[in-house]
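Subgroup meeting minutes
Present: P.N., E.W., G.H.
Scribe: E.W.

1. P.N. recapped why we're keeping a running log of single-chain structure predictions: easier to compare across weeks, and new members can see raw inputs and outputs side by side.
2. G.H. added today's entry (122 aa).
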Amino acid sequence: MAKDHKGLRVYVKSFDAAMAIFRLTRNFPKEEVYSLTDQIRRSSRSVSANIAEAFRRRRYPKLFVLKLNESEAEAAETQNWLDFSLKCKYISHSTHQNAMKIYDEIIGMLVNMQKNPQQWHL
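Output recorded in log:
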């Protein structure tokens, strides 16, 4: 078992995905700074932040699962903002597909962790 949240594959994957979103949104129009850009950055960063918090709450299985579920919801919200980014033509179809695939993988990992919280219990 990982000694801290940074040793979790899902944490690393979600952190890297959030950094990719950050780099991607640098090219979004200035009028989106306080709307789409802010929203997608916030939700993408919340995925790894909630995983970190969940890891520290793993001695309490219900709280652990709750934080993982919040992380899953933030990943789904990020996918929503990616859909808007595509429709607004801020990102290419291939960029959208790649990002959606990464977030689908993250969601899958989070769902598996929620289904088996006992393996993470202290």
